Amino acid sequence: MTVMTSAYDLRTPAGWFRVIAFAEAVSWVGLLLGMYFKYLGSPRTEVGVKVFGPVHGGVFVAFVVAALVVGLAVRWSVGTWLLALLASIVPLGSVMFLIWADRTGRMGSEAVVAGLGRPGPPVPETT
Fold it and tell me: What residue segments make up the domains of the chain, in order of their start?
């Protein structure tokens, strides 16, 4: 029997990290739009900044905590930790980091991240 998990499986730290990384990017876009309307837009309004400022702040903290949890779970190197922290402050950097981490295998195998990667005898396939 093969265990298949979704990349966004919320039973895994990596799944939570992916969701939070996308939420962080969306909150960045909202904050950037809010700043546009505050300083350049017509009509000028601070509503976007007042709404998305605190939202982005909360999601930013969640991203850093999620990066800490995933990094510990899959044993990131110091360089990967630094890139994750840098990605948290660059607009849309969280998504760029996530794509890079997935492509380079730094998110860990889904079986390991889900806690299913314990060594043991092979399970025979059933038909």
Answer: 13-102
